[in-house]
Amino acid sequence: MAPPLAFVGPLAIIMTVSSVSSSKINRCPLRHKSGVQRPPLVIGHRGASFHLPEHTISSYRLALEMDADFIEPDLVASKDGILVAVHSVDLNVTTNVHTFNDGEFQSRARTSKANKGAWGYYVNDFTWDELQKLTVRQRVKEGGARFDGYDGLFKIPSFTQIVDMLHDWNSRELPLIGRPGKVGGVPGLYVEIKSAQFFMEDGSLDMAELFLNELSTHPKSSELLFDHVTLCDDLKHDEYRVPPLVVQSFEADVLEKLRVGFKTRWMEFVEEDELLSNGVVNATSESDDEIDHPCSCKGDPEQFWFEVNKYHIAGLGPDKKCLLPSKEVVDSGDPSAMKRARHEAKEWVLKAHSERLAVHPWTVRIELEGNGHGGGVPSMFSSAKEELAYYFCELNVDGVFSENIGLAQTVAAEGCGDDSASPRVQESGKVCMAHSRNAWLLGLSFLAIGIFVGSISTCFVSSYAQRKGARSQRSMPLPELDLDEDDDEDEMI
Q1: What count of other Cβ atoms lies within 10 Å of the Cβ of residue 203?
Q2: Can you tell me the distance from the alpha carbon of 275 to that of 19, in angstroms, rounded to the nearest whole number?
Q3: What's the rounded Cα separation, in Å, for the pair 295 and 10?
């Protein structure tokens, strides 16, 4: 089986390669051809995480129902090597681990040298069976805009369960309701491999190897993620399909391990030139002394683009701060400085496009930043709608990570007041599912299962008493634990 693939590396490098055979590559590129006009892609950030607790099957499923082009699970590892979807290595951030069963797991709280000495309930100290006892809650603070009534209703999903859900959606349910016209295909999976260095140092768990193993052994991964990429060979000049699988990481060695792993395990299908022919970098302004970060959107432009070209990548996934005027410029109120900063951001995107790179900034949240929500709507905008219009219309980005799928889709569909804004892409009339078994696709940067809000609401009403009790036991930290970790976490994908 030859998988098409998409990778990510430091800060994060992301690569997408569609490899059907030694003579067929890049059939589903991340960025559309020049003849294709379509609305920007909408990537469901941790699912539909504004509406439901992040990284749950229900949140992913709701994102699909709201017409997301991708769902984005963050993968971490359990003690017994099962990949699960949780954003933080500390379970206390979004689960009831501290209060579960009157403190059954409180003895597990500890510090970790691999996590800079921070206290936490580390996910790699828990087996898959133990993780299934926990429930997930909204990542909100007091006075937050997000409804926390669903806290305690959903469990941590495994990567296997996410693949099963997406396969069911694409193969059984989507044909019954009609596939998204703007995609001309089916939604994809935008995976992030989280904290690989931490898991190796703290638990001797190789995240790249675990991911490769689960992909190669899952009975539905070939049909869902790889086989149908062959139909991208037949796309017309005005047609486009999203890559079925995109993989991202903030650590360069993960990219290298995946590259070597795919080359070793599928040597007859994937040659090095093919594997490195396309990709994406997720450039951020973060820094970490323990990780080599060759790419940052701030700093020496020549060095940045040199590093980008060195990795032979297919796109950029920058922190949205890279595309916004600095706080100093905004606070100055200087119109000339603001205009210059916005022009520089536009030139940055144009430069990426001139290198045939897609641009997917993250993350658009509906809350106003001034209300204490890190990564929320910047003060230069009055609303998330205005912020989205800036990315779509002024900067002309290729897609965004969004936590409110409906709003992002609405703004994308409204267009920008000209013929090139967001016309629907021409459909090919084919759903690219199972075709050639020797197809494999994997890409970079940034999916899902759930239930209808109505059915969730029914569950909510029927279990009100149970949930009310659960809410009264919202996870509280041990004296040493710090729940304010959100501030930094929210600034990452």
Answers
A1: 19
A2: 8
A3: 7
Q: The domain 5-81+153-442 belongs to what CATH superfamily?
A: Phosphatidylinositol (PI) phosphodiesterase (3.20.20.190)
- CA-CA distance, 177 to 64, in Å (whole number)? 12
Give the domain ranges of the chain.
Answer: 5-81+153-442
Q: How many CA atoms lie within 13 A of 174 on its CB side?
A: 29
CB 315 within 8 A of CB 9: no
Confidence grade of residue 467 (pLDDT, cut at 50, 70, 90): very low
How many C-beta neighbours within 10 Å does residue 286 have?
15
Strand partners, 45: 72
The predicted structure's pLDDT at residue 300: 73
* Residue 62 backbone dihedrals phi, psi, to 5 degrees: -65, -40
Beta strands in 99-236 (DSSP E): 110-112, 118-120, 188-193
Distance CA 4, CA 432 (A): 14
- What is the pLDDT, as a whole number, of residue 254? 82
Residues 6+ apart with CB under 8 A from 336: none
pLDDT band at 383 (very low <50, low <70, confident <90, very high): very high
Q: The tokens of 103 are what? A: 């403190």
Average pLDDT over residues 156-179: 92
Angle at 366 between CA 475 and CA 393, to 5 degrees: 150
Three-state SS for 33? Answer: coil
- The dihedral through the CA atoms of 223, 226, 227, 229 has a sign that is positive
Taking the C-alpha atoms of residue 6 and residue 441, their distance in angstroms, rounded to an integer, is: 7
pTM recorded for the entire structure: 0.78
- How many CB atoms are closer than 10 A to CB 42? 28
Tens digits of per-residue pLDDT, 12-57? Answer: 455 554 433 333 344 577 787 777 778 899 999 999 999 999 999 9
What mean pLDDT, rounded, does the chain reach? 75
